[in-house]
Amino acid sequence: MPGSRTGRPPVQRAVRRPAAPRPPRENPVLTLYLRARRAWDRPLTAYYLILGGSLLITVLGLVMVYSASQITALQKSLPGSFFFRKQFLAAAIGAALLLIASRMPVKLHRALAYPILAGAVFLMALVQVPGIGMSVNGNQNWIALGGSFQIQPSEFGKLALVLWGADLLARKQDKQLLAQWKHMLVPLVPVAFMLLGLIMLGGDMGTAIILTAILFGLLWLAGAPTRLFVGVLSIAATLGVILIKTSPNRMARLQCIGATEPGPGDSCWQAVHGIYALASGGLFGSGLGASVEKWGQLPEAHTDFIFAVTGEELGLAGTLSVLALFAALGYAGIRVAGRTEDPFVRYAAGGVTTWITAQAVINIGAVLGLLPIAGVPLPLFSYGGSALLPTMFAIGLLIAFARDDPAARTALSMRQPRFGRKRGAAGSAATREPRRWNTMRRRASAARSSGER
């Protein structure tokens, strides 16, 4: 045959086809980010962040209170676990309050606003009665309950202002009265100033700062015009400057910001030794219970400066963990306030978040030497039952609000046994619809022009 000397047909070589393009490799970082984002957007994210974050902060706080308070208890000829046992009892009572608050309907929370406010005002006035009120560290803001138990009514004033202020603003918003500045300020600001006056009679400026932050948080959520907001802030700042200038103790605390030496007369002893404790902790700390500063060098090691002992014993890893837990708690509170359509829930959730976040920032800022020492405890973490009880009730409020979201209710009901679920098809379809995010601030453009801001 032509082309072949052997007579065999020519061998046909196989034609190499181009290989099919390989699918692009998945970026593991992008995949992890997308999964985290999907998990972050689930209906129960805020619920679990509030419940888990507050539980972890409280448990870690109990551990650090036990570690930081042992030396103080022994110096006072008390058992080493004295302060821990009292804090554990307060945490147990607070857990019961948290559970009750988380199961209460919103209407009952609103009904309790006025009784809690009246009770807080009565107790705060009772503090100033000779023979009933008692002074601790120069502040006349305690009532003795017998034995070693005391109560600080000003701590309950924070919860009272949040609940009462939220109910007041919600009712005025329903009647479309918040467009008028008089209704926005009265009676919210006068009542808040009355609480501030009762607190300042005892000399507790730290708690007064937290109450002021709650007031501004409520006004911001209500959509206060900028000029009105700045006006109230200017009045509060002026009063604050006067109170600081007229008090040598407060002036001395202000001068200790960023101090690295105790100074003349050891005026900055506490601030400096708080920095020493944080600096000696390193990355992972000296070990639980191995703090040196708590051996009489650092005052209030188990209360206002427990964050410093945490840094010394658990290091940077421990302090960053505490900060991350508070950040998650703050985010969850903002998310609850932003996704609700109920004005009371929005104001109350925003007020509680402002309260806890502002108090944590002031306490940690003082320990880091960035802010003056205000004498406020770290929420859920520091020793003190008077601060722990209302804070845990407030956390219960956030949990109740997070559970009340329709999407969260649907997700929770689907986790229950099938024989306990009775849902109509129409109702399920309606509750499955994604809820849109609502703005944190009330849209006031319908009531007034943007030029008023």
| Shape by Cα distribution | globular
Sequence of secondary-structure elements? HHHHHEEEHHHHHHHHHHHH
**How many domains comprise the coordinates?**
1
Helical/strand content category: mainly alpha
| Gyration radius from CA atoms, angstroms | 29 Å
* Strand order within the widest beta sheet: 1-2-3
How far is the first residue's CA from the last residue's CA? 99 Å
Q: Count the E strands.
A: 3
How would you describe the overall organization of this protein?
It is a single chain. With 453 residues, the chain is mostly helical. The protein contains 17 helices and 3 strands. It has one domain. The protein is 62% helix and 3% strand. The protein has a 3-stranded antiparallel β-sheet with strand order 1-2-3, covered by helices on one side.
Short overview:
The protein has 453 residues and is mainly α. 62% of the residues lie in helices and 3% in strands.
Write the layout of secondary structure elements.
Layout: H1 28-40, H2 45-75, H3 82-103, H4 106-111, H5 113-126, E1 133-136, E2 139-146, E3 149-151, H6 153-174, H7 181-185, H8 188-201, H9 205-221, H10 226-245, H11 248-255, H12 269-281, H13 306-339, H14 343-367, H15 385-404, H16 406-414, H17 425-432
Antiparallel strand pairs: 1-2, 2-3
Relevant terms:
single chain, 17 helices, 3% strand, mainly alpha
